[in-house]
């Protein structure tokens, strides 16, 4: 599903100064895997997630997604591939401010031209799945707790039935009970066939996955 071949990522700070955030990374992720990416702060986890989800480009090396060499794709092709296959949950700012919850869940697909009446029933059912009560659906994001917002973000990422779900610290800043609920939800999704790739600081949570990618100073320790 996703394969990295000798991937490097360099951030250029000034013309002379740069940081090599990922060094010669090789690994592959198969359909149905549940991968946890762990490592110290600044080790390159978010960078790896950004490259694997096609949000950012590698400086050198090849990233294969579903049999496609991504280095040769145009920006519009990368965006389409990302939209077709991937759902994303970020640590912050996953919801659009000022937009009621139900619309928020549907927004990415509405913006792609899909009809509201085709989306609404599934959006409501996903909100229920993630534990958001029906009378909350017209609330605005700021009226929810951080944990509730995260759950709505999960529903939003799932609406298009992504083959791969990327999550950056999905349980950070959540209480233990909510964190466990999110973890259980991920496990259910994975059992139903969704590939999950998750960055986490939480070693306990990382053990829930089927495999571990450990990064230190931009290098992969084991796969
Ligand atoms: N846009 C950027 N421009 C310049 N340097 C960056 C950029 N993004 C990340 N870096 C640098 O690349 C390295 C890896 O950062 P990254 O965010 O991938 O680490 P991380 O493991 O996700 O850290 P954390 O756990 O603290 O979120 C760090 O040294 C960071 O300062």
Report Rg.
18 Å
**How many strand segments?**
10
As laid out across the biggest beta sheet, the strand order is 6-7-8-3-9-10
What percentage of the residues does DSSP assign to strands (E)? Answer: 25-35%
Query: Which architecture name does CATH use?
Result: 3-Layer(aba) Sandwich
Q: Quick one: CATH class?
A: Alpha Beta
Mean pLDDT: 91
The ligands bound in this entry are: adenosine-5'-triphosphate
- Our count of helices gives 7
In short:
The protein is α/β, with parallel strands linked by helices and 223 residues long.
Fold topology:
Elements: E1 2-12, E2 18-29, E3 34-38, H1 45-52, E4 60-65, E5 68-69, H2 75-85, E6 86-89, H3 101-111, H4 116-129, H5 146-158, E7 164-168, H6 176-191, E8 195-199, H7 203-206, E9 211-216, E10 219-222
Parallel strand pairs: 3-8, 3-9, 6-7, 7-8
Antiparallel strand pairs: 1-2, 1-4, 4-5, 9-10
The protein binds adenosine-5'-triphosphate.
Adenosine-5'-triphosphate (ATP) binds at residues 11, 13, 19, 21, 39, 41-47.
